[in-house]
Specification:
By secondary structure, the chain is an alpha/beta fold. Helices cover 44% and strands 16% of the residues. The protein has a five-stranded parallel beta sheet with strand order 2-5-8-1-9, sandwiched between helices. β6 and β7 form a beta hairpin. α1 packs across α5 and α9 runs antiparallel to α12. It is elongated and about 65 Å long. Bound molecules: adenosine-5'-diphosphate. The site of adenosine-5'-diphosphate (ADP) has 17 residues, from α3, α8 and α10. Keywords: ATP-binding, Nucleotide-binding.
Length: 275
C-alpha cells in the first residue's frame, strides 16, 4: 500500500473514532454478545422499534472496541453510488470520491446502516459481497476491487414493526447477518435511562415511563408504535427546562405519536393519570 494512501486512511480512521465514552445502560447480554460477534467481524443486525437505544449501543460498542464508526441513515432515495462512491468533476478534472461504505471498508470501521429497510433492494445488494467470505467491495465504475480491512464490520438496524410486503429485508440479505433483539427496556432500567439522559428525578422519569407503557399497550389498536425512550427523554428535557409536566407530555409524547383525535384524547387522559 503506498505510504500516501496509508497516511490518508489513518487520518480518516482517527477522524471517525468515538473519543468520549457514550453513556450506555446495558439491558441484557448484548454487550458480550456483540463483542463475540465483533471478534470474527460477523455482520450484525440490530432489530427493534425506533428510539430504543440501537444507535447509542453501536456508538458505545465502537468506543469500547476502539474502532472508527461510520453511520449512514438510509432512505428510499439512496442509490448504490451514495454508499460506494462516485466520480466528481471539479476544476482539476475528474476524481473519484469514496462513499461511506467504501471508506469504512478501507479504514476498518464499524459501518452502521441505520434503518436499512428504507433503502431500495438494488441499493442494499451492494453490501452482499462484503458480508460473505470474500469481504470485498467491487467499485464497478472505477474498475477497482476493494478488499475490506481486517477490522471492517457491517452493522444494520431494522424495525420489524414497520414490516410490510414492500418494506422487508429479502432473505438473501437477512441471512448474511447475526441478529440481536432490542426493545424498550423494563421499567426500572428505562426509568434510570430517562432520568440520566433527560436530567430529571427518578420519580418524574418513572411516571413518564408509566405513560409510555399505556401507549405501548395500544400498539396495533390504533397506534403503529408506542412512545419511544427517545420521546420520553424529550419530555423529561422539557420538564427540566420548566415546562409544566402535562404540557411537556402533550408536546413530546402525545402529539408526535398520532393525528387521530380519539387516540389523542385517550393518550392525554393517560397523561392526566400521572401528571
Ligand atoms: P434507535 O437507534 O433505536 O432509534 P437511539 O439509540 O437513538 O434509538 O435511542 C434514543 C435515545 O434513548 C438515545 O439517544 C439515548 O439517550 C437513549 N437510550 C435508549 N436506550 C439507552 C440505553 N440502553 N442506554 C443509554 N441510553 C439509551
Amino acid at each position: 500500500m503506498p505510504a500516501a494512501f496509508s497516511a490518508t486512511a489513518a487520518d480518516s480512521a482517527a477522524q471517525y473514532l468515538v473519543r468520549a465514552e457514550p453513556w450506555y445502560h446495558p439491558v441484557g447480554d448484548e454487550v458480550a454478545h456483540f463483542e463475540a460477534a465483533a471478534a470474527s467481524r460477523m455482520p450484525m443486525m440490530l432489530k427493534g422499534p425506533t428510539g430504543c437505544g440501537k444507535s447509542r449501543f453501536v456508538e458505545y460498542m465502537a468506543w469500547r472496541l476502539g474502532r472508527p464508526l461510520i453511520t449512514v441513515a438510509c432512505n428510499e432515495d439512496m442509490t448504490a453510488a451514495d454508499l460506494v462512491g462516485r466520480f466528481l468533476i471539479d476544476r482539476e478534472g475528474t476524481r473519484w470520491q469514496d462513499g461511506p461504505l467504501t471508506l469504512a471498508a478501507r479504514i476498518g470501521a464499524l459501518c452502521y446502516l441505520d434503518e436499512v429497510v428504507e433503502a431500495r433492494q438494488d441499493t442494499v445488494v451492494v453490501i452482499h459481497p462484503l458480508t460473505d467470505h470474500r469481504r470485498v467491495l467491487p467499485l464497478d465504475k472505477k474498475g477497482e476491487l476493494v478488499e475490506a480491512h481486517p477490522d471492517f464490520q457491517l452493522v444494520i438496524s431494522y424495525n420489524p414493526g414497520y414490516q410490510s410486503l414492500m418494506k422487508d429485508l429479502k432473505p438473501s440479505t437477512r441471512q448474511r447477518f447475526g441478529a440481536l433483539d432490542f426493545d424498550y427496556p423494563e421499567s426500572a432500567v428505562e426509568t434510570a435511562i430517562v432520568a440520566h439522559e433527560g436530567g430529571v428525578s427518578e420519580e418524574v422519569a418513572g411516571r413518564l415511563v408509566q405513560v409510555a407503557l399505556r401507549s405501548r399497550n395500544l400498539k396495533g389498536h390504533g397506534l403503529d408504535e408506542g412512545m419511544s425512550t427517545r420521546l420520553l427523554i424529550y419530555a423529561a428535557t422539557l420538564i427540566r427546562s420548566g415546562v409544566a409536566p402535562a404540557d411537556a407530555c402533550r408536546i413530546a409524547l402525545v402529539r408526535p405519536l398520532t393525528d387521530d383525535v380519539d387516540m389523542r384524547d385517550a393518550l392525554d387522559a393517560a397523561v392526566a393519570t400521572f401528571f
